[in-house]
Every structure is written in structure tokens, then in C-alpha cells.
Design a protein that fits this description.
With 837 residues, the chain is α/β, with parallel strands linked by helices. The chain contains 27 helices and 18 strands. Helix content is 39%, strand content 7%. Helix 7 crosses helix 8 and helix 16 crosses helix 18. 31% of the residues are buried.
Length: 837
């Protein structure tokens, strides 16, 4: 690791210190102090927080794993609980506020927690939930083996950081942040009463917290607008209502320190009705009455002193009336106008930081007054502040009331001042990371309201402190805000640092995808800046990310989308001539291959296509009847091969690509021709059916031919033409076809002529001859004949009778006419019917 600012290894102070290390000979005069380098254990990694070049992370070496942490004893728990309380304010101790009319709720809560039940205490802001939790904590000290644990849920929407805070409170594990598996295993062994104030989560997040700690009993303080727990969480619900009239008067008298007058009693009754009996309103009302007494000089001891010398009071006594009911319901403006100037300046800073008030030790530097640290006690006595964990913030509704009267006009200036102050303070060597973590909310608020330059400076110094304090939720928020501010300011080097830290944080939390993205961004930015040391640190972390991804893939291999192997090229369509019947030699061959059970693959299909297209017959089982092979016509059979191969797999696919390879190929290509299926000898029944089909087809053709002859004969007239003279058409006739065609056997039967005259039935013994000058209206043939064929002498055969009503003509011998000539008249051509056959 690179030592910076002249610091050697023996002079490192991991947690900071009041005295800086002695400079060495390599130290420069500009060195302000040593860099704070802290070594931590984060799960399975050893993390070294380096604020200069970026944190370095590496796996734990064998033998350096931390031992199992031990639980704290009672004394250590008490000391840590005292450190978790709000800081003690300078000046005289403030009297404890009474807790009237809460005895019943306190006894009920203690009883439920003693039975191991978890309770949700619901009440509006200002109802006294925190004070009731303090009273319950004193009564539940010896109920659980691990005592009482006080936690703050303010700003936590997920249970992760709360579980880490619970782990750090119960176990002695300094500079150790366990992994999630180790964390869940350790918190399951914790048996404590956990008081969780300012709860902001509910539903599944709260259920996860309860399941992770089954041996703990929770007292959850939340407001009514917080998300409710799920129905099966079995959490008791206790609602904290307002105080009664007598309790409100008692609280008001205790705050004022004297009995109330009749006028003040009536005013308190109206205030109780307007505020629904919230204790916070009567704490603020008591402060209003005390200020009124001071202004009216009600104290006799002050009469001898000269007014206006040391205090800002008027010299003339002026009677100040009681506040109005509106001022009592919203007293922030009136109370702020009567406090000291330092207190008002602190209120402006709190409004600029979103309600967060810095630690009282920071107020003298922020306000510019050496006695400004006393302003916190003054504001707390007025009811303008409320304790939240280890800090104070403005009470409910105070920030809105103050912003309406102009306390938020200087918010940007106040936030910039606070950001520059915290940037100097968090980077000081004497400030330990635990103190920075206690001030996390104020630092984050200053970071959100500052300009980009101050935000980059503050994030750069605060991020290593948050990382070393194990407050990693604040660490991540600071890094993201710093990266955005550095991008806007154009600080490339700072932006690379923030992305590197985000990648290391994601790697510690086992978010490998996020870690890879952040580290690659950081390496790219540092490569552009030629930052060799930063680039090396980023590449080391990125190599660790790759190792973790490889280890995770080896443990449980995921389904990956891989490109399938390209199939062998094949034509679009393959025509394979396969005999309809197998050859006798193939059928009787002794080495006939058995029939395949599954469809052949691409290689088998290609091999089959290259061989002789002769079908193979499966062997015949002994004793089976084999039909004789009858040769059938060897017409070629055309088989079409699909373009996209569909392959059946016998084994179960193990990758997602194999599942979709058949149905959805990435590169569709024609499949090779499949092997021809083995043909078997046709059965006798099949041969008979085929012969019947052929005979039926031949008969249909004969009927068509004879029907044509009959139709032509019927369309002739009674006058017979000369026997040896050619038939010449005398009248022009128009036909559909200008040429004579030969009729094929597949053509359908001709339709009857449309314009033909009704046919006359010929007498027996009379020859049927066409009428001269007439031609059939429709030619039954489609294929033209180049030359009219010569008709040899034949005997005219009359067609068989189709119906019983018509007499069958007897065959008579007639001389065959010579080929007739055609005469074109008009637009048609008359064709002698003798040329049709």
C-alpha cells in the first residue's frame, strides 16, 4: 500500500488520535497530518480504508479469520447504553419532566414484554412516546439475559442496518462487520428487550426484522401514519392517547413552577381542547408562561436590579397578556422571538439542515459566539427540540412554523457554512470515526444543501470516516451524493474515487453486478487521467469480483443462452426418386437394417441422401406371415424436405439454447434430406383396392369418350351427308377454340352445348352422322393437334344404353369418311367431328 503524507507503517493510527505521527525525512512541509488508514474485516474480506487512492479489498488469508465474538457483560452494556443517549448539555442539569397519567400504559407494556410479546406503541408526534420508553426501560432491566437495548429507527426503511446496530450493541466485535449469513446466525442468539424509537418501517420489512431475532421482545414506538405490521406478525397494539384536563394542568404547573391563576386555568382548558391533550403543547405552553412572567417582572428579586443592563428587557414595565389560543397551538414563532440571539441563530441552522441540530460543540464555530453551546439547553427547555437517538432535532411542526416567518430565507448560506465546517472537522486527525458516525444525520443534511464544490470536499473527507465507523448506510449515501456533485463540478479524479468506493462497498455486500459496473467506471476515469496507482487498486478489486463470479458459477451453473452449432448446409427442397415398391433383392437381403425408432439426425440424413435411393426393409420376425411382393409401377415419388430442421432428441436438454434450438433456430438453414423410410410389401387388400381404382378410372375415361361421340351424333340433323364427299360447313359457326385439341384422360366430361338444338332420337339401323355445316359448341379437348389424324375404317359402335327409356342403336357398317377440310367463315372455324378421334 502507498504510504501518504510521510507516514510510515509503524506510525499509523487506525482510529485517529490527538497527536499526529512524527514526520519522517520524506515528509513535505505542506503535509498537514497523517492519512487515516483503517483496517477492517468485512465478511470474508479484509478491507483497508485508504482515503487517498481508494480502499483496498482482498480475501482473508488462512489463519486470519476473526474468532467468534463474545457478548458484552452488564457493565459494558450499561456503558454503551449511556453513550447511546443524547449528550449532556452544559450548564445546570434540567429537571426531569413528570410523566402523569401513564402508569397504566407503563404497567401494561412491562407485563407484555415480560411474557416475551412484542408491542407496537402508536401515538402522534408529541404524545410522549420517548418519555414512556425511558420509563419502561428502567422496569425491564432484568427481564432478558442480554438486558435492554435502545435503538433508533429514524431514517431506516430496511432492517439491515438495525440488525448490524443490534449486533454491535450486544457483541464485542470491534472493526468487524459480519456477512449476512454470519449476521443472521449471531442475532438469532440474542435474547434482549429491544426498545426501538421512531420506527419508520412496517409490513414485510418489519416481519423480516422479527424473524431474524426470534428471541427478542420488541417495543416499537411509531406514529399513526407509519405502515402497519402484517396480520400474521402477532404484535400487540397499544395506542397512546392525549392527556386529560387534570393531567394537563398538573404538567403545566410543574413546568411553570407555581400554581396557575383562574385566567391561566381557563386558558389551559381551551388549549387542551385545541391540542387534544398532547404533552408537547403543554411543555411549550409552560415556556410561554415563564417568558411572560419574566417580561412582567413578576419576580420580586429582579426589582432591585437595573433592567436593560445585562439583559435585553425594556426599562419600562409593560404588562404582557396571555397568549392567544392560536399562539398556544402554534407557539414556535412566539417562543423563538423571546430566546437569545444565539438560540435564534441555532434555529436558522436547524432549518437549513432539515430540522437536524448539530452537536452543541459545533455551535460556537457555526454561530460565531463562544457561548452558543448553551443555546441547545435553552431551546430544549422551551420545547422546540426533542431528543432523537444521540442527537437533537426540531420538534414536530416547529420547522414549518419557523420557515413561514422567514427562518429559512438564509438556508443555502447556512448549509454551505455547515458543509465547509464539517469538511474540516471530519478530516481532522483528532476526530475518531465514532464521533463522525454520531453526527451522520447533520453531515448528510449539510451535504444535501451545499453547493457542488463544498459537497465534493465534504463527501471526500466524510466517506472514509463513515466506512471506518461501520456506518455503511451513511457511507453509501455520502458516496452517491459525492459522485453526483463531482460530476456536476467536473472533478473527474474525485468522481473516479467515489465510483471506486461504491464498487468496493458493493463487493463487500455481495452485489457483484453493481460492483463490476462501479469499478469499471472508476478504472475508465482513472485511465483517462493516467492515474496508475488508482488504476491498479481498481483492477485488483475487479479481479476479485471476477473470481467471485466464477466461484458462484461453478457452484450453481445457470442456464445460458449459447449459439447452437450450425447445421450442415442443405438445399431448399430435395427431390429423391424412390421406387414405389422395393426391389426383391433388397427385400430378401440378409443384412437389412432394422427400422429406426427415432427420427434421424442431420448427419444420418445427409449420409442417407448420398447413398442409392433404395428402400430397406426391416427383418421379418420368425413365424410371421409375409405377403408376396407384387411389382407395381415404378413411378418416382417426390418428397419435400422442410427448410427448418425439426429434430427429435432422445436425451433431456441441459441448456436453454438446446430447448429452443429445434423450434427457434438462430440461423435457419435447410436440413439435409432424411433417409427414406423402409417400404414393405403391399398387402393383397391394398393391391386389390389399387386395381379397382385403376379399373374405375379407365371406365370413367371410356364413358367420357363415348359420351362425346353420342353428343356429337345427337347434334346432327336427319339428312345424311354424302358418303364419300367431305363435309363442308355452309353457315358460319363460332366455337370456343379455333384449333382441335386431343382429349386427355384426366379431363372432366364435357358440358352439354348451350346453343345446340334438341337432339332427335335416331331410329334403329340408321347411322349417326354429323349434320353438314354444324360443329359442336364446346370442344372437349384442351391440347391442340398439329395435323388432323387419319381415321381408319372402323365400325360405328353405339354407346351402351344409359337409361331404360331410350332404345339402344344397333351397330351398322358405314364407310369411313375421308378427312374433311375446314372452311373459315367470319371469325370462327367449323371442324368436322370426324377428326376428334
Amino acid at each position: 500500500m502507498d504510504r501518504t503524507q510521510g507516514q510510515t507503517e509503524q506510525h499509523e493510527q487506525p482510529t485517529g488520535g490527538s497527536a499526529p505521527a512524527a514526520p519522517t525525512a520524506a515528509a513535505t512541509p505542506a503535509a498537514a497530518g497523517p492519512a487515516r488508514v483503517v483496517s477492517l474485516t468485512a465478511g470474508e474480506f479484509a478491507l483497508t480504508v485508504n482515503p487517498v487512492d481508494g480502499s483496498e479489498i482482498e480475501p482473508l488469508r488462512p489463519g486470519t479469520e476473526p474468532a467468534r465474538p463474545a457478548k458484552r457483560d452488564a457493565a459494558a452494556r450499561a456503558a454503551r447504553a449511556a453513550a447511546a443517549r443524547p449528550p449532556v448539555l452544559p450548564g445546570p442539569a434540567a429537571p426531569a419532566r413528570p410523566l402523569p397519567a401513564r402508569e397504566e400504559e407503563r404497567e401494561r407494556l412491562v407485563r407484555l414484554l415480560g411474557r416475551g410479546r412484542s408491542v407496537r406503541l402508536t401515538g402522534p408526534s408529541g404524545s410522549g412516546r420517548s418519555a414512556l420508553l425511558d420509563a419502561v426501560a428502567d422496569r425491564c432491566e432484568g427481564l432478558a439475559p442480554d438486558g435492554v437495548v435502545r435503538l433508533s429507527g429514524y431514517g431506516h426503511q430496511q432492517p439491515g442496518e438495525l440488525l448490524h446496530a443490534l449486533y454491535a450493541t450486544v457483541y464485542e466485535a470491534e472493526r468487524q462487520r459480519p456477512g449476512r449469513a454470519e449476521l443472521l446466525a449471531r442475532v438469532r442468539e440474542i435474547g434482549a428487550v429491544v426498545l426501538l424509537d421512531d420506527l419508520e418501517m412496517g409490513g414485510p420489512a418489519l416481519d423480516e426484522l422479527m424473524r431474524a431475532t426470534p428471541e427478542c421482545a420488541y417495543l416499537l414506538a411509531a406514529t399513526p401514519d407509519t405502515r402497519a405490521p402484517s396480520d400474521d406478525s402477532h404484535i400487540e397494539e397499544v395506542f397512546l392517547a392525549g392527556l386529560g384536563k387534570a393531567d394537563c394542568l398538573e404538567l403545566l404547573e410543574a413546568g411553570v413552577g407555581r400554581p396557575l391563576t383562574d385566567e391561566e386555568t381557563a386558558w389551559a382548558g381551551d388549549l387542551r381542547f385545541a391540542s387534544e391533550g398532547l404533552p408537547l403543547r403543554f411543555v411549550q405552553a409552560a415556556a410561554l408562561l415563564r417568558q411572560r412572567d419574566e417580561l412582567n417582572h413578576s419576580d420580586e428579586d429582579d426589582e432591585e436590579e437595573e433592567p436593560g443592563v445585562f439583559e435585553e428587557r425594556p426599562r419600562d414595565a409593560v404588562h404582557v397578556p396571555l397568549p392567544t389560543l392560536a399562539e398556544g397551538a402554534a407557539p414556535a414563532e412566539l417562543l423563538a422571538s423571546r430566546v437569545s440571539e444565539s438560540a435564534r441563530a441555532a434555529l436558522r441552522i436547524a432549518c437549513a439542515l432539515g430540522g437536524e441540530l448539530p452537536h452543541h460543540a459545533h455551535l460556537p464555530a457555526l454561530v460565531g459566539d463562544t457561548h452558543a453551546d448553551t443555546a441547545v439547553a435553552e431551546l430544549l427547555a422551551c420545547g422546540l427540540l426533542t431528543p432523537v437517538g444521540t442527537r437533537y432535532r426540531l420538534a414536530s411542526g416547529v420547522a414549518r412554523q419557523l420557515e413561514e416567518v422567514g427562518y429559512g430565507d438564509t438556508a443555502s448560506e447556512e448549509a454551505r457554512t455547515a458543509a465547509r465546517h464539517y469538511a474540516w472537522w471530519t478530516g481532522h486527525a483528532s476526530v475518531v470515526p465514532a464521533r463522525v458516525a454520531a453526527e451522520a444525520d447533520a453531515v448528510l443534511a449539510a451535504l444535501a444543501g451545499a453547493d457542488v464544490v463544498a459537497a465534493v470536499l465534504l463527501a471526500r473527507t466524510a466517506a472514509p470516516a463513515f466506512a471506518a465507523s461501520l456506518h455503511w448506510e451513511a457511507w453509501e449515501r455520502v458516496l452517491r451524493s459525492g459522485a453526483e456533485a463531482a460530476r456536476k463540478a467536473g472533478e473527474v479524479a474525485e468522481q473516479a474515487y467515489f465510483h471506486h468506493e461504491l464498487g468496493v462497498l458493493a463487493l463487500c455486500e455481495e452485489r457483484l453486478d453493481r460492483a463490476r459496473a462501479e469499478l469499471e467506471t472508476s478504472i475508465g476515469l482513472r485511465g483517462a487521467l493516467a492515474d496508475k496507482r488508482g488504476t491498479v487498486a481498481g483492477r485488483r478489486a475487479l479481479a476479485l469480483v471476477v473470481d467471485r463470479e466464477t466461484a458462484g458459477a461453478a457452484v450453481s451453473p445457470p442456464l445460458r443462452l449459447e449459439a447452437p452449432a450450425a447445421p450442415a448446409a442443405a438445399p431448399e427442397a430435395v427431390t429423391v426418386a424412390t421406387p414405389a415398391a422395393p426391389a426383391p433383392k433388397a427385400a430378401a437381403g440378409p443384412k437389412a437394417a432394422p427400422a429406426p425408432k427415432a427420427a434421424p439426425g442431420p448427419k444420418a440424413a445427409a449420409a442417407a441422401a448420398s447413398e442409392t435411393p433404395t428402400a430397406k426393409v426391416a427383418p421379418v420376425a420368425p413365424g410371421a406371415r409375409v405377403a408376396p411382393v407384387v411389382p407395381v409401377s415404378a413411378e418416382a415419388v417426390t418428397r419435400m424436405t422442410p427448410v427448418v430442421p425439426v429434430t427429435a432428441r432422445s436425451e433431456t436438454p441441459t441448456k436453454l439454447s438446446e430447448v429452443f434450438e429445434d423450434a427457434f433456430p438462430l440461423n435457419p438453414k435447410p436440413a439435409p434430406p432424411a433417409a427414406p423410410r423402409p417400404a414393405t410389401a403391399p398387402a393383397p387388400a391394398a393391391r386389390g383396392r389399387r386395381r379397382l381404382v385403376l379399373l374405375a378410372g379407365a371406365g370413367a375415361l371410356t364413358v367420357v369418350a363415348l359420351g362425346t361421340v353420342v353428343s356429337l351424333a345427337l347434334s346432327s340433323s336427319d339428312t345424311a351427308p354424302p358418303a364419300q364427299e367431305p363435309a363442308v360447313s355452309a353457315t358460319p359457326a363460332v366455337t370456343e377454340s379455333a384449333t382441335t385439341a386431343v382429349n386427355s384422360g384426366n379431363d372432366p366430361a364435357p358440358e352439354p352445348p348451350v346453343s345446340a338444338p334438341p337432339a332427335e332420337t335416331p331410329e334403329p339401323g340408321q347411322s349417326v352422322a354429323p349434320t353438314p355445316g354444324r360443329s359442336p359448341a364446346r370442344t372437349p379437348s384442351r391440347r391442340p393437334s398439329p395435323t388432323p389424324p387419319k381415321s381408319p375404317p372402323a365400325t360405328s359402335v353405339s354407346p351402351p344404353p344409359t337409361t331404360s327409356a331410350e332404345p339402344s342403336p344397333t351397330p351398322t357398317e358405314t364407310a369411313a369418311p375421308s378427312p374433311t377440310a375446314t372452311t373459315q367463315t367470319g371469325t370462327g372455324t367449323a371442324v368436322s367431328p370426324a377428326t376428334d378421334r
